[in-house]
UniProtKB/TrEMBL annotation:
NCBIfam families assigned: PRK00278.1-4, PRK00278.2-4
GO molecular function, one term: indole-3-glycerol-phosphate synthase activity
InterPro entries the UniProt entry points to: Aldolase_TIM, Indole-3-glycerol_P_synth, Indole-3-glycerol_P_synth_dom, Indole-3-GlycerolPSynthase_CS, RibuloseP-bd_barrel
Name assigned to this protein: indole-3-glycerol-phosphate synthase
Enzyme class: lyase
GO process annotations (BP): L-tryptophan biosynthetic process
EC number: 4.1.1.48
Organism: Rubroshorea leprosula
Pathway: Amino-acid biosynthesis; L-tryptophan biosynthesis; L-tryptophan from chorismate: step 4/5
Amino acid sequence: MCIHSFPLIQAKLDENAENALKVKEWEVGMFQNEMAVSQRIKIRRRSPTEPPTHYVGPFEFQLQNGGNTPRNILEEIVWNKDVEVTKMKERMPLSVLKKAIENAPPTRDFIGALKAAHFGTKLTGLIAEVKKASPSKGVLRENFDPIAKAYEKGGAACLSVLTDEKYFQGGFKNLEAIRKAGIQCPLLCKEFIIDAWQIYYARTKGADAVLLIAAILPDLDIKHMTKICKMLNMAALVEVHDEREMDRVLEIEGIELIDINNRNLETFKVDINNTKKLLEGERGQVIHQKDIIVVGESALFTPDDIAYVQDAGIKAVLVGESIVKQDEPGKAISGLFGKDISL
């Protein structure tokens, strides 16, 4: 064999190894989809089509499967997030994040802040959302940088910061900037988390809590990610939007915070009655027995809306659109609650 052929052979071996890794990643993705289906999760974690090439001797072929188009906006977001996170992990391995966390400031007590606000005002604690845009409403506020301080001054117990860039025009730079601006409120990283790596990354950017969405995460992922949050002294806010998701989450040990989203993330339609429906009967009893704090989200625009969900058993609310669009966020908060809630 000619010595000059060695580089070509090595290149082919490298190509085969790289493709084998892609095949493995694709198979993992398919397993995640199958596990999600077994728990009646409608959102597929990644596109089931266009797998990498398989080599069999001198031949190559691709496995084919239908359905490479996202079925709704949430599935589209998740598929894009999978690509985004894969690239970010290559640039910043988990070992680097863990090292950064060792020198990071301590987290703030997200759950404690909500409890204190509820006790102090006798109303629901407020998680005010710093949000520039959404897929359903477009741009909500061009200049949103100063509103974090206005929210805090207006009585917000915690802040929620959108970190998705593609669909919400957010970013981790916003989370980091708010933390460095001297905001004392605990911060929730509102992201589409599909990989535990994202939790570590959020911690390095100043997050005190993260959102875990039951519609896109199997039970095992929620359980594992909740444990990671506790290890990092962070809170995990687990979002549900129907009875099936609520029942799944209530079966998982160690859940302290549940967010009932009155917006269906597949259709983006809202229904405030969803809150009451999910807290009625045995579910409400289990929540009380486990001392879980329930947060209400979406379809909250008036003092009557706040009173309605509070009567249903809500201890805190996560509000964005109804206050972020106002010229004076502090006054918007007072208008939402029907009184000044700043302590």
